[in-house]
Amino acid sequence: MAKPLMAKATAVWLVDNTTISFKQIADFVGMHELEVQGIADGDVAAGVKGFDPIANNQLTQEEIDKAEKDPLHKLKLKFNPAAAGEEKRRGPRYTPLSKRQDRPNSILWLVKFHPELTDGQIAKLVGTTKPTIQSIRERTHWNIANMQPIDPVALGLCKQSELDAAVQKAAAKKAAEGGVMSDDERRKLVSTEQSLEMDAAPKIPTAIEGLETFSLSDDGDEEKEDEAVVDADSFFNLPKGGAEEDDEDDLRN
After folding, report:
1. What pLDDT, on a 0 to 100 scale, did the predictor assign at position 173?
2. Residue-level pLDDT at 87
3. Which residues contact 74 (CB under 8 A, 6 or more apart)?
């Protein structure tokens, strides 16, 4: 159900200027009945100026009269173009002030680990602008030397489901374009749950790449090695004569 603009201020005005029940006002502005009663008692919304819903084209006087006569009547919001789409805003996500300093780190993480995401997708995820993303991609940001890539989900800038949805969309676009992806890129383009379920692919270090087909010996070499081992015993049997006969001659002399 659509809610009026400045709900609390509207509730203050209705409490002060009408005899509508607290329940009716609470249902109309989206508050709890006890909160509306607190407004009447002066415990809630102290200092808040009332917002006239009639003057601001959100209610009609006839609707208020019906509600005052019938306690079961529910107030209906008058169509107001200014209130259309208020619950779901379009454009960049709002980021609290306390987390805005972490946005560059999260952008750096997304650019580094998910380069397939477009600037528009990153802007929606963390609530930033395309020039900022571009400066981080090109490493021309004024604070790039002090940045550390940090997961935006860990920082609370977006939900894991939102990040997964963006990655899946990028994966579908990549597949439609027919681009060839490496194993690492393919693993990045799946959701977190799918990635955790995948088996780790064995990898060979680049320094010894190609040695997986190299063998120190083959079937033919094994026979030669066996012969070499057999002949090794005779290698240490010195022939008679030579050094031994020379020693005997020295002893006789």
Report:
1. 83
2. 47
3. 24, 27, 28, 67
Residue 201 near residue 183, CB atoms below 8 Å? yes
Residue-wise pLDDT for 176-204, tens only, equals 776 555 555 555 555 555 555 555 555 54
What Cα–Cα distance (Å) separates residue 162 from each residue in 3, 105, 117, 145?
Answer: 26, 18, 13, 29
Residue 47 falls in which region: left (phi positive, over 0), alpha (psi -120 to 50) or beta: left
pLDDT score of 1 more than 60: no
| 3-class SS string, the chain | CCCCCCHHHHHHHHHHHCCCCHHHHHHHHCCCHHHHHHHHHCCCCCCCCCCCCCCCCCCCHHHHHHHHHCCCCCCCCCCCCCCCCCCCCCCCCCCCHHHHHHHHHHHHHHHHHCCCCCHHHHHHHHCCCHHHHHHHHCCCCCCHHHCCCCCHHHHCCCCHHHHHHHHHHHHHHHHHHCCCCCHHHHHHCCCHHHHHHCCCCCCCCHHHCCHHHCCCCCHHHHHHHHHHHHHHHHHCCCCCCCHHHHHHHHHHC
The answer to whether residue 244 scores a pLDDT higher than 80 is no
User: Terminal CA-to-CA distance of the chain, rounded, Å?
Assistant: 126
Which pLDDT tens digit goes with each residue over 34-77? 888 888 888 887 778 888 888 888 888 999 999 899 988 988 88
